[in-house]
Design a protein that fits this description.
disordered C terminus; alpha+beta; 228 residues; 25% helix; 7-stranded antiparallel beta sheet; 6 helices
């Protein structure tokens, strides 16, 4: 199935990939993005974190001790990713549930404590994502390795992310506004005919914190991350 884009409305064009995966709500994009960036700052160790069970400053659920228990950016992605995805579930209200067939995915490159790219897959065999300045995309899922916003190869085939870079967690349900897009009728989707070679597939992910989050944010989010 060729990559398709959502044409029902354009309210998601400035949405970061993680905002779509974790919320899908344009009205709360800045708030979601700010908490995501704050979690990244804490995991990167940009400031001292107390040793206690209080909710970490700027977050709504993850505690200081949760931060302490996490591996740092010098650890392998295979060690960092499962804990990172669990923290994202906790902070943004997802319930892990094996066997649901609904997955939150993250692409982790060396040195990253939060995903370089986030997207979702659903039990009907589809993969869904977006990127700032782009629509929401969907296409047939290939082991969680071919999110549409990563683009197409020159031969027209899906870009396939390396299997040792992509990790997922099964959850009971996606966020309501994410589901709203996913559940729209087929008439609100059309084959994408733009040059798709614009994804993150070739980017090096070992940037500093500010540059790291700069890969994700749209215009509406830049003010929220001005201190990143």
């Amino acid at each position: 199935m060729p990559r398709e884009k959502f044409i029902g409305n354009d309210s998601h064009h400035d949405m970061a990939c993680h905002v779509f995966a974790l919320s899908g709500d344009p009205e709360t994009a800045v708030e979601i993005n700010t908490r995501y960036a704050r979690l990244g700052d804490l995991l990167y160790g940009v400031e001292d974190v107390p040793v206690d069970d209080n909710v970490a400053g700027g977050l709504s659920a993850v505690t200081n001790n949760d931060i302490w228990k996490c591996p740092g950016p010098d650890q392998p992605a295979a060690q960092v990713a499962p804990i990172s995805l669990n923290l994202l579930c906790r902070e943004f209200g997802f319930t892990p549930q094996e066997g649901s067939g609904i997955r939150l995915w993250g692409r982790f490159l060396p040195g990253q404590v939060l995903p370089q790219h986030m997207y979702v897959t659903t039990p009907n065999g589809m993969i869904w994502d977006t990127m700032p300045g782009k629509p929401v995309y969907r296409r047939i899922d290939k082991d969680g390795r071919n999110p549409g916003a990563e683009g197409d190869a020159p031969n027209g085939q899906d870009v396939m992310l390396a299997p040792d870079e992509v990790f997922s967690i099964e959850v009971a349900a996606l966020a309501p506004k994410t589901r709203d897009v996913i559940e729209t009728p087929n008439g609100q989707w059309e084959k994408d005919v733009e040059d798709a070679d614009v994804g993150l597939a070739g980017q090096n992910g070992s940037a500093a914190v500010g540059d790291f989050f700069g890969d994700f944010i749209g215009d509406e989010d830049e003010a929220a991350l001005s201190d990143a």
